[in-house]
Input
Amino acid sequence: MGSTMANRHLSRSIAMQALFEWDFIGKRPESLKPIVQHTLGEFGPGMEDAGFIYTLVEGVEKNLPQIDQLITATAPEWPLETITTVDRNILRLGIFELKFSSAPDVPPKVAINEAIELAKTFGGASSSKFVNGILGAIYKQMGEPRKDE
Output
C-alpha cells in the first residue's frame, strides 16, 4: 500500500471518528473543527497533511441533508436514528466521496471499499455488509460511473 493510500486510509478513519463524536453530541456546526483537531491530535499525531480530513468532514457537513436523504431513500426500512452512530457516519463519509466529492483521484470503487474497511474496523458484525449494500445500491443508481477503474 503506497503511503498516499495509507495516509488516506488514516485520514478517513480520523474523519469518521470526528464525525461520530460530532453526531453524538448533537451536530453543532461550531463544534466540528475543534473535534477534528482533537481527534487528529489523538489518532494522527505528526500527520503532515490534514487537508484531506477537513475536506471529508466539511464536505459531509455541507451536504448532510442530501446525504441523509439518500440513506433514508436507499434503506427505508432503516430510519436514520435506528442505524448505529458508527454505521451512519461511515455511510455519510462513503456517500460524500461517492457523490459529492470533487476529488477525481478517488474512483467510486475505492470510496466504497474504504467505507467497507472502516465498517470492519469500527462497526459491528454486520456493519460491512450493511454499508456495502447501501453504497452499492447508490452506486448502481448513479449508473456505475468509472466502473473499470
Notes: Residues 4 and 78 are 35 Å apart (CA to CA). Residues 3-24 form the longest helix (22 residues). The chain has seven helices and no strands.
